[in-house]
Amino acid sequence: MLKFSVCLLLVLLFFISENRAEILIKNLKIGISDKAGDIIFKKGLTFPEKLDEIKDFDLSNKFIAEFEVKSSDGPEDEKFVLNYANLFFTSLKTNAQISSVAKLLPNKNKYKVVMTGRNLFSKMSVGGKYQLELALGSFKENPGILYDIGTLNLVGSGVKDHAEARIDQVKPEIHHIFSQPERMVIPIFSYIITAISAVPFFLFYLYVSVLDFL
């Protein structure tokens, strides 16, 4: 469903555009860093070239992609801003999918997207192979690009090969126990207490009445 929405957006961008210029991807570089931040894998790609499978991407690794975009109609040094730039990770086992937004680095005029193995697993709960696709779109240029970069294999300690099915069990019925009502005072005692309480007021009334009479 998510991929369908992306394709629909790219089609809309195609029809909204007023010219026939195209988005060009330049200097695409893929890198993998380890826990210490050292680059352990690096490769440059030229569209539509694909990566060989990244076989050992574990929870401590970080996937990094940097690239530039140009317009086929514009000058080479012109800054170009995309309206849509996402890298999609699709599990080949479950077809579940998440995306990470590519952010513009204004000082370098480049886009950069990062995904850690731990973040990928925490959101997907499944290891194994993931297809990587870069989706780019702009209202000024058409058509958009859906670039199949390649695959990576999420492995390592604690990574499951298959997502565990969630089982919703029937919850026990909640029984509310009402407390026993307190015993009521016998009505006759209630009347007697009321009468006794009224005696002082009655006597006071008589006393005042006698004083007025005298």
Automatic annotation (TrEMBL):
Keywords assigned by UniProt, alphabetized: Membrane, Signal, Transmembrane, Transmembrane helix
Signal peptide region: 1-21
Any Pfam family the entry gives: Ribophorin_II_3rd
Residue span(s) of domain Ribophorin II third: 27-152
Swiss-Prot/TrEMBL GO biological process terms: protein N-linked glycosylation
Keyword flag Kinase: no
GO cellular component terms given for this protein: oligosaccharyltransferase complex
Domain of life, per lineage: Eukaryota
Record-annotated membrane-spanning stretches: 188-208
Protein name in the entry: Ribophorin II third domain-containing protein
Organism field: Smittium megazygosporum
